[in-house]
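Input chain follows. Return structure tokens only.
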Amino acid sequence: MKGWAILVLAVALAAVVPDARAQGFRGNLVGVVVDSSGARIPSAKIVVSMAGVRANARSMTADTHGNFRIDNLQPGDYELSVTAPGFAPAKAEVSVQVSSTRSVTVTMRPAATVTRVTVHAEPSSITTQPLDLTNSVIQGVVTNRDLKTIPLASRSFANIAYLAPGTEPVEPSDPTKARITAVSFGGSSGLNDTLTVDGAINSDDYIGGFLQNFSPAVIQSFAVQVADAQADVGGTTGGAVAITTKHGTNQFHGDLALYERDASLNARFPIDNPAPNPKQPFSRQNYVASLGGPIVKDRLWFFGGLEYVHENASIAYSPASLAQFNALASLASDGLLPGVSSIPVPNSVPVPFRDAMGSIRFDWTQSQQSRWFLRASEDNYTRRNDLVQQAALPSTGASNHSVYFNIALNNEYIFSPTWLGSFTFGASYLHMTERRSGNLGYALAFPFTSTSVTISGFETFGDNQFVTPITAFPVLRDQENYQFLYGVSHTSGDHAPRFGIQFIDEPVLSGALSGTAETLTTFALNPAEYASDPQQFAVDLTCTPSATLQVTPGTTCTSTPASNGTFSQSIKRLGLYAQDTWRVTPSFTVNYGLRYDTTFGLFTASGRSQLDNPALLTLRALQIPGFDSYGAPHDYRGALAPRLGIAYAFGHNAESVFRAGVGLYYNDLAQNGWVTALQSVNAAPGACAAPGDPGCLPGAADGGVGAIIDPGYKTPYALQATVGVEHAFSPNWTLSASWVHEEGVHAFRAYTYNAGYTLFSPLYPRDVADQQARVPNLSVFRSDNRSRYDAMFVHLQGNVGDRLNLVVNYTLSSAYTWGCVLGELFDYVNGVCNPLNPFGPGDYGPSGEDVLHRLVIGGVVRAPGGLEISTLSQFESARPFTMTTPVDVNGLGNTTTDRAVVNGVQTSLDQFHGTPYIQVDLRVSRPIALRDTWRLTPFVEFFNLFNRNNPGANYVTDLAALPVPVNNLYNATAFCLNAGCTQTKPITSLSQLQVPAGALGDFFGPGTTVGIPFAAQLGLRLTF
């Protein structure tokens, strides 16, 4: 009843509270009116109208101190008119950006002629952001101009988000939507961020991160909020990205563009595709078109855009992989693989990709008080041989088809010059399918393919491609999301309060993981070694010793019975916030607010409570200590998040701003983290320990595996504290420095208990065999992790006339968390090595996105002859990784959670480091003016201009997968220089174990933390 009471209260509030600036997709204008002596002019009339759209004028009257503020302005260029008795009218051109507040000072002169205020709507860019004198948020605003002029390797808006300070690129966490590039904030994996488009949330509640991709052709601008977001931002423990799309005006405008890439324009990648092998096939064309204009002048406008991607990529194999594949093929030809007499081994595998992204928006001025817009967007793509990677054969692949659809409907109603209400309805839809290349019923995994950073390809041959070292990915996904956001903002003297409610109904959050019966054999040796000893291969294939041969140590056979792999949820989310911007003095502003978020049905699966989970029933029936009293988790009701920020402008002309803030930020874990617990309620009943007990799981010896969610679950949150200063040396040069601290609390961790090792029933003898005969293995998902992120951001932007626009960001940071073989902040991959000692030695270390130094340089140089040269260059320290071993070093019954032991010392979490990342992207264009506003721009783009090999942290992470084997997987002290390991080379340094693992496949595609080889792209754009 308590939960329903909260819901009823929310509905009641919605009836009286008209969500303002939901997730900050609009901007604000604040200013003061003075005379030539600096004295305040009271009661001046202010009129603001969007350039080219006169019907959208907003007006208000300055207060008795000459102050005025106009909120909820659509990003764009505006004309500002000010009139006051006895003074000449004043006009100015002002640019308002998304999620930002523009400050202006209007100086009026005695009545004579119209005066122009020296504020102009300069071409908007992240390189020309004015000082925000009232905002404590650390952010960067990227505009459509930046999207057009900065080279984008993947034509994704997220590629250029790195121009904001404190951001990092990360590989997409879900390979089934790998073209939706992710952004890391606060040293995290990017799964804890929130994305809004025109005020409607577009985040992925199953995998996490961004849900749908949008063509840069339809994006007006977006704000990248790194830290200290205000109370209207929820659903994130890291950062937020707020996009606003383009709209029509009274003039027709748009563009046409073509992007062309081909293998002949790309460098060869020597790791995957060395000479003299044929060069890896590749071609890509992007076709872009957009058009906007009036339907009814001054009343109704439209803007639409379409981008189509036609790509024929491929996966090339390294010589090492080809040698192993050919050895495997010889085993098949000898009849050693059931049902397979031959295995084709191609030099490359085609991976065709087709993508259509479309968007249409209508804006309608119903009256001077009421304005509407409706925007609908779709992303529809297909890919063949999906999930095939550089160390896996085509049999492990699939065909992928994904359809995303998103709409946003908004009404803005002006009750009075000081009261404004905003209503947003958002809806999103996803349907994704992965169809396997085949169903052999078994898969073979060898050491040379085992790498924890490979997003797929763990299986060298077979069809069990959805089992990887990281997690399980779905073969089917469906998601429907409906949002209702309603709010009101008010400007009253020195205060600008706003209140809002956000209600999300997600009736469909469902899908399926592979439920096919399969057997996975994980070999301790590679195919080349088995080719010379086929009898040993036959023994290891089934893990059955013969009269003369034993199974090779480290080889395991796992049989997975057919199961119901589906999962289904229906979730409701509620958010309430109140925020005020209090201008205590003209130079001192306080932003304070309070946000509350909760959920309904977060732990209910297929309509069943976790009390129906057979793993929970089994634990109780077996009277296992510590679990016998376990119950079901409940929706968390304590996510109350206060926010406080200050902005103090100082200096003779307010050319400096001091900012500081503190706040709590809550965000529920994406459901993929505990999907096995959601699936488990579908399990059929089984026999239990005693007659009359409810259905239970079989023992581990018979494949019994259970998963439960800790009943003490609490929503993860981050405590953020920031302080910084920004100074404008001149109107064209600005420098800022900020310090950020984030403390992660209640983050996710997975505890793996193994029967007879770390999980015991007192009903049976304590030996391993008796326990495994009756006790299942168990995964427990708890919210007890902690993390820490500290960083200093330095941001420089400068402009030299029309010749140079520059932005430089430097970040000095550290990100640490608890984990076992993967360390991530606010992610679902963090495991526990020893569930009986979850905070053990070596388990605390850097996150996978821990980067000590990071430097980003972007901007445009306009050279003589009309040439424009732009760049996006990234330089960063090496990222960490963990070295593992496939044997049970710790004696806990689990061979997947053991870090390598070298010279008698076990390595720690993310102790190793890859290669520093350096990539310079360049664009050269020559705009040609045709007539009036028509412009033709041919261009060429270069990615990784210096063709630097950038493996990043993509290194071999398994001792057994090293190209030169070690002498002992339990304790590596030397490398084996011959087959019998009679000749060895001592390991004297951990750096000897660091071997690049090659590309992640599809390396002419997204490539973010694993660099692409040099690639050139030709293009032509017509703008009008």
